[in-house]
Design a protein that fits this description.
Chain A is built from 14 helices and eight strands. Chain A is an alpha/beta fold and 391 residues long. In chain B, the strands form three sheets. Chain B has a four-stranded parallel β-sheet with strand order 2-1-3-4, sandwiched between helices. In chain B, strands 8-7-9-10 form a four-stranded parallel β-sheet, sandwiched between helices. In chain B, strands 5-6 form a two-stranded antiparallel sheet. The chains are: A alpha/beta (391), B alpha/beta (434).
């Protein structure tokens, strides 16, 4: 069996280190190189990072602390029946982890994240905090106008800090960089679709998550190199089933959980872990004379399925089935964080969609700091065996 | 556990009961009478618009809370869980869906009519959006209108936000209502209703403000949820609602003039010992037992945030007939759960000072993140700003599994002891100072 290239191993190690650096060392060092640079943290799931890049900033994904930081203060801020993500984020805010960040964006994924934006205001963290209220109307002149005004507000927030005016050429350049970023990420998923043994799901997770805490230029270089390296043949296929993971778009599952699923005999051929990085399906127009409107258009017409968006007329269940078919998956694992209203309220309909389409599925819930995976591994293993034997 | 007797009712309560009974009769006859039915939510509701279009509103969260009070929610929730809904999610949603699975029988024992329009007024609660996605699947083919209410994330309502909402009303919501009913919106009628709404709102504020008097003639939380009913549901904008609030104001003013304490289900409260401000919705499954713990201890809620989920009229908002759609937009954005956390803390601080409260209590609801997320920080802020004792209890809206009577009573008794002790200390300090 041909071994994985050494260079790939070292790149994966680098991604692993970056992905879980809760001090955001790389981003802070990047900022320190110029007084005109800014850092804007954002919570799951999606913000148009292009505008932050064009404003001489770096968008930094704050995806929670996972099982990497002990929660002491955070638990005093949240009741037991609220998900784990915000208690880790507030812990970071109260410690020094988020120092040097200039602003924070809180996408409208749920009421916990919404209210966390207010908590950041109360504890006076950052020079600005914005609840990023996605329009739920998708008419260009209604929801599009509202979204454009929201983007302009964030741009004004950033301008107040570094006096950096966004010009068309800069924004088009940023759009092009993120187009490339999404293209490379999709290329990795497509290669794994065919050869899932060349990278583990954990490797992919580290690769994508690393991109949320470094500048897009560097991430693109890494991604391009990884795509080249995994285009070569190495490794051995295993007798695994192919699954799509659904429901882990906000609070992130612990790495041990992802590993357990694969070790139990399931190749994860698609997922919604880092949904924000793959939100726009396809490219944003990078040659427009009005690039801000190009970003708006992309949001209105190219957003992927998400629990954050009212899906009337374009049900998520049909889109999940389409994703399963595209990836030739054998089943779906619904894997949502405990107390995650958006994922858990979507689950019955998504399950029904799978049932109607004859797609096998199982579900379980997790916390980002879940430490016991035996039951999950057994459940996933049984799922894998049942599909291999009976489907 | 207590076993409350038949509740004692005042005239305004009887009027409201009749209003509701008539509404449910009208709803049960809606299809026969050719009336169109709208399912919508209480926060940011567009009642005047619905009524001006001759439609009848149904509020799923009111169905849920009534199911809770009628002890039916437990089984409804379990039925929804069997369908795949997690134990972790909003129990209003599960109760409503369970009620539908069981024939959608309303509080009068008659079946509620299916909707002709699903109007998602998405105000102050993300779960509303998920709730309506589920309703949409349970009522396939029904016309759907979505009104996205932007959150007051920066503590203000901007012109951009108003324009966004007005455009949605003009180009989506109203045309869909017109399509469903087959008639054009009569703006004169809408404006008249908005005028009536403002009159009722003015009277409601006067009712609320009687709680500044010592002793307070009303309980602004436990009784407040009844008082706010006509304004928050199907009657805002009607003459009936104005008449109801005129009667209610007369009653509470009379009580205030006689220095009477609030009416409880067991008659007049004898003595006001503690004045509290409460944050969070009440528990509905054990509502009377919950209330009894308070009135038995002489605790009166002089102001509450929950009674502002349907509008912050006491902070000056009134519906306006001059610019009807702008007025509706501002109303939606001004509801309590659409305020950001700093605004919510400021409001509570204002209530504690304005209503001369002895303490601040949070009833944290397991399945309502819109209220609950951030409450512990709010509590700390209030403690620092107002120097009043704060209390924290936990329950749920309509899931009886999450109402622990003994635990709540125990915590409240400790809290009231603390308030009592503090009163003694403050009195001693005043004496020394004098």
């Amino acid at each position: 069996m041909k071994q994985a290239p050494e260079r790939l191993t070292s790149l994966l190690d680098e991604c692993k280190t970056l992905a879980f650096d809760l001090n955001f060392t790389y981003a802070k060092q990047w900022k320190a190189k110029s007084k005109f640079r800014i850092l804007v943290g954002y919570l799951p799931i999606y913000v148009p990072r292009e505008i932050i890049h064009a404003a001489n900033g770096m968008a930094v994904g704050i995806m929670g602390v996972g099982d990497r930081k002990q929660i002491i203060k955070g638990d005093a801020y949240y009741q037991s029946y609220i998900c784990h993500l915000p208690r880790g984020v507030i812990e970071m805010a109260l410690d020094d982890n988020l120092n040097d960040f200039d602003g924070f964006l809180f996408p409208s994924i749920c009421d916990c994240v919404r209210n966390l934006s207010g908590m950041f205001k109360l504890v006076k963290k950052g020079k600005f905090t914005r609840y990023f209220d996605y329009p739920q109307n998708f008419e260009k002149h209604i929801g599009g106008t509202f979204y454009l005004e929201l983007l302009e507000t964030v741009i004004a927030d950033m301008f107040k800090i570094n006096d950096h005016k966004i010009i068309t050429a800069h924004l088009n350049n940023s759009i092009a960089l993120y187009n490339r970023n999404r293209e490379l990420i999709e290329a990795i998923y497509d290669i794994r679709d065919e050869f899932p043994w060349r990278l583990s799901a954990v490797d992919v997770y580290h690769i994508i998550r690393a991109g949320m805490v470094i500048n897009v230029e560097k991430h693109n270089e890494m991604l391009a190199e990884i795509v080249d390296l995994i285009s070569e043949d190495f490794g051995e296929p295993m007798d695994n089933i192919r699954v799509v993971i659904s429901g882990s778009f906000c609070e992130q599952p612990p790495i041990g959980l992802i590993k357990s699923i694969e070790m139990a005999g399931c190749y994860i051929v698609d997922d919604d872990f880092m949904l924000g990085s793959r939100w726009i399906q396809g490219s944003v127009d990078e040659t427009s004379h009005d690039p801000l409107n190009a970003i708006v258009d992309a949001f209105l017409t190219k957003s992927g399925p998400s629990s954050a968006i009212y899906d009337v007329g374009n049900p998520k269940s049909a889109r999940l089935v389409k994703q399963v078919r595209k990836r030739n998956a054998d089943g779906v694992i619904f894997c949502a964080a405990s107390f995650c209203d958006p994922a858990l309220l979507d689950r019955p309909d998504l399950q029904k969609g799978c049932d109607d389409a004859g797609i096998a599925h199982i579900n379980f819930q997790f916390h980002e700091n879940t430490g016991q995976f035996k039951v999950i591994k057994e459940q996933a293993g049984t799922f894998s065996d049942s599909i291999k034997l009976w489907v | 556990m207590s076993n409350p007797k038949e509740a004692i009712k005042e005239k305004s309560m009887v009027i409201q009961k009749d209003m509701l009974a008539n509404l449910f009769t009208e709803l049960s006859n809606a299809k026969a009478n050719g009336k169109k039915v709208v399912y919508t939510f209480v926060p940011g509701n567009l009642t005047e618009l619905i009524l001006a279009m001759d439609m009848l509103p149904v509020y799923p969260e009111i169905n849920a809370l009534q199911s809770g009070m009628r002890k039916k929610s437990g089984s409804y929730i379990k039925d929804a869980e069997k369908m795949g809904f997690s134990e972790d999610v909003c129990t209003y949603v599960k109760c409503d869906i369970g009620m539908m699975l069981n024939g959608n029988i309303g509080p009068t024992g008659e079946k509620l009519p299916d909707p002709d329009l699903l109007l998602l007024s998405y105000t102050g609660c993300f779960t509303f959006l998920k709730w309506f996605e589920n309703l949409e699947r349970l009522y396939p083919g029904v016309e759907i209108a979505m009104l996205h209410t932007p959150y007051q994330e920066d503590g203000v309502i901007t012109d951009d936000q108003i324009r966004y909402m007005v455009k949605q009303l003009q180009e989506d919501v109203i045309p869909k209502m017109e399509k469903v009913t087959g008639k054009k919106l009569d703006y004169n009628r809408l404006e008249k209703m908005l005028g009536n709404a403002a009159k009722a709102e003015e009277l409601w504020v006067q009712v609320l403000e009687t709680a500044k008097h010592k002793p307070s003639p009303i309980d602004s939380y436990f009784a407040g949820v009844y008082y706010m009913g006509p304004l928050n549901t199907a009657f805002r904008g009607t003459e009936e609602a104005v008449q109801y609030y005129e009667e209610l104001l007369k009653e509470v003013t009379d009580r205030m003039d006689q220095n009477l304490c609030p009416v409880t289900p067991e008659g007049d409260m004898k003595e006001e010992k503690f004045r509290l401000v409460v944050e969070g919705p009440p528990n509905w499954t054990n509502f009377r037992e919950f209330w009894k713990i308070f009135y038995d201890m002489g605790a009166v809620i002089v102001a509450s945030t929950y009674t502002k989920v349907g509008g912050l009229y006491d902070q000056g908002f009134r519906h306006e007939s001059g610019k009807p759609l702008e007025s509706l937009a501002k109303y939606c954005m001004g509801c309590y759960t659409n305020l950001n956390l700093p605004q919510r803390v400021d409001l509570i601080e204002h209530y504690i000072k304005e209503y001369k409260a002895d303490g601040f209590l949070i009833n944290s609801i397991k399945s309502c993140n819109s209220f609950s997320a951030g409450q512990l920080l709010m509590m700390r802020e209030i403690e620092q700003r107002c120097s009043v004792p704060v209390g924290f209890i936990e329950s749920d809206l309509v899931d009886p599994r999450y109402f622990s009577y003994a635990n709540i009573k125990n915590r409240l008794e400790s809290y009231f002891q603390m308030l009592g002790q503090r009163k003694v200390i403050l009195a001693q300090e005043e004496e020394v100072a004098a």
